[in-house]
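Thread amino acids onto this structure.
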């Protein structure tokens, strides 16, 4: 091989390597961008998802930042059964459970760090009351009226012993009430999370709660039972959207838990403070307008919408879950990602 040819060859190879190197850089960049968009920020394990009659499957949603096993529990309709279902589904695969314990009770005692209760309806509290005897000490967070209802009407030595630290004496002090003030952010004890509570309208003269949960720079929003502003003659959802719109704009809000108790055919005068797919889409359209009024159809595309509290059809064989899923999909002009929560099935978003 003469010198010139060798030199030409090495220039050729250098260019070729440079080419490969650039290609590699471009692909690494693409992967990085892709990963950034899809990076999981939150893990939720629903312990109960139905909006009634299924005593073993009532509203309760575990939530933790991705990588953490310190969960908060948003509402507490069903706990023990939900933990069993979730464990059997492999949703707690990252937690090592000792072999000589009751697994569901171990999870409840060690990994559920606090309860946040949206309102005191029994389908949101049943599990908390029934597991109180065997649970570990932890706080219960809620708006004043919610905690007052629990204190006066449930943990009152009549309906159940007083496992909390206020109300009818003596106090067993397993649970510590933490009263939240609307739109005021506080730390959730035993976790790295913060919460801000907002009142929701859940039927005439009855408030429920939305909890905005914060982990560092990321947020998840959980709505307890709520009606639509248009039906409830309220502006509570509008006010909530105004608060969270900047977080959506900055892509800091990753997901919203929102209820669809009934399908669209439910008469307006029988909604009793609940939503339907059409009302969810109408409400989220208002949020989209606040986030980006010029391109509302793109404004919420990075959000995961977790649909909760679907009431089983008690009159016919119609599957309300399938019906609601169809109704959400058919009119999904906002390009939203909907997930229908399922008991025990881990959701990452
Ligand atoms: Zn309710």
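Threaded sequence (349 positions):
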């Amino acid at each position: 091989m003469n010198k010139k040819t060798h030199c030409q060859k090495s220039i050729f190879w250098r260019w070729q390597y440079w080419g490969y190197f650039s290609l590699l850089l471009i692909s690494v960049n693409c992967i990085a961008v892709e990963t950034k968009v899809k990076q999981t920020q939150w893990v939720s394990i629903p312990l109960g998802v139905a909006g009634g009659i299924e005593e073993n499957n009532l509203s309760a949603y575990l939530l933790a930042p991705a990588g953490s096993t310190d969960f908060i529990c948003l509402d507490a309709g069903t706990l023990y059964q939900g933990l069993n279902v979730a464990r059997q589904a492999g949703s707690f695969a990252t937690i090592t459970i000792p072999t000589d314990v009751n697994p569901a009770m171990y999870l409840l005692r060690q990994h559920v760090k606090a309860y946040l209760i949206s309102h005191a309806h029994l389908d949101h509290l049943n599990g908390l009351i029934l597991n109180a005897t065997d649970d570990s000490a932890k706080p219960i967070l809620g708006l004043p009226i919610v905690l007052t209802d629990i204190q006066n009407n449930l943990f009152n030595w009549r309906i159940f012993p007083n496992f909390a630290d206020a109300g009818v004496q003596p106090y067993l002090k397993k649970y510590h009430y933490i009263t939240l003030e609307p739109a005021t952010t506080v730390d959730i004890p035993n976790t790295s999370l913060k919460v801000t509570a907002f009142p929701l309208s859940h039927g005439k003269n009855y408030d429920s709660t939305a909890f905005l949960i914060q982990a560092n720079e990321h947020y998840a929003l959980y709505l307890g039972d709520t009606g639509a502003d248009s039906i409830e003659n309220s502006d509570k959802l509008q006010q909530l959207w105004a608060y969270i719109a900047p977080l959506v704009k900055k892509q800091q809000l990753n997901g919203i838990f929102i209820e669809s108790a009934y399908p669209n055919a439910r008469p307006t005068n029988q909604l009793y403070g609940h939503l339907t797919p059409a009302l969810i889409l109408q409400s989220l359209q208002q949020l989209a307008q606040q986030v980006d009024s010029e391109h509302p159809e793109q404004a919420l595309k990075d959000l995961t919408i977790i649909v909760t509290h679907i009431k089983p059809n008690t009159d016919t064989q119609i599957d309300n879950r399938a019906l609601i899923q169809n109704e959400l999909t058919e009119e999904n002009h906002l390009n939203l990602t909907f997930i229908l929560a399922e008991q025990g099935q881990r959701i990452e978003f």
